Amino acid sequence: MRQSVHHKFMKAALAEARKGLKEGGIPIGAVLVRKGKIIGRGHNRRVQKKSAILHAEMDCLESAGRLKASVYKECVIYSTLSPCSMCTGAILLYKIPTVVIGENKTFKGPESYSRKFVKLVNLDLPECKRLMADFIEARPELWNEDIGE
């Protein structure tokens, strides 16, 4: 898939991240894409929903609804940040073959493990890094709560 296509869908994931920030949450967003169309979108809503598990990828998969296994196998999931172990587990469970991330400097999930099963593309976008850096500076207590520090 071309970089321009990846950037188009990452832009949608970034819009989700900004939506989460505007709601008072952690600015991480995700979209699920099948055959060039977004079929699910979400953002980290742990704060908003007082949830232990509602990371962006989980919210995105939930918004896509129940899908046949064959549908997931045709998808790409875009996340503004490297998926954590929980979200990686869901991605692997549903056999989503490609994961495109905005950046992994702020947080790096189990990427070396993921690569055994999925194609992982890191766009390494300054915009994603800046969004997280600004958030962590403004709300370190929320960031530290989410990553378990």
What does this 3D model show about the protein?
This protein is α/β, with parallel strands linked by helices. Helix content is 48%, strand content 17%. The protein contains eight helices and five strands, in the order αββαααβαβαβαα. The protein has a five-stranded mixed beta sheet. The longest helix is centred in the first third of the chain and has 20 residues, at 3-22. 39% of the residues are buried.
Tell me briefly what this model is.
It is built from eight helices and five strands.
Can you tag this structure with a few keywords?
single chain; 149 residues; alpha/beta; 8 helices; globular
Q: Mind sketching the topology for me?
A:
Elements: H1 3-22, E1 29-34, E2 37-43, H2 46-49, H3 56-64, H4 69-72, E3 75-79, H5 85-93, E4 98-101, H6 111-114, E5 119-122, H7 126-138, H8 140-147
Parallel strand pairs: 3-4, 4-5
Antiparallel strand pairs: 1-2, 1-3
Helix pairs in contact: 7-8
Q: What fraction, in percent, of the residue positions are helical?
A: 40-55%
- How many whole angstroms does the radius of gyration measure? 14 Å
Mean pLDDT level: 95
Q: Quick one: biggest sheet?
A: 5 strands, mixed
What strand line-up does the widest sheet have?
2-1-3-4-5
The count of helical stretches stands at 8
Gross morphology is globular
**Approximately how much beta-strand content do the residues carry?**
15-25%
> How many strand units?
5
> Which residues sit in consecutive blocks of at least 5 with pLDDT less than 50?
none
Termini separation comes to: 37 Å
The arrangement of helices and strands along the chain is: HEEHHHEHEHEHH
Strand pairing plus helix content: what structural class? alpha/beta
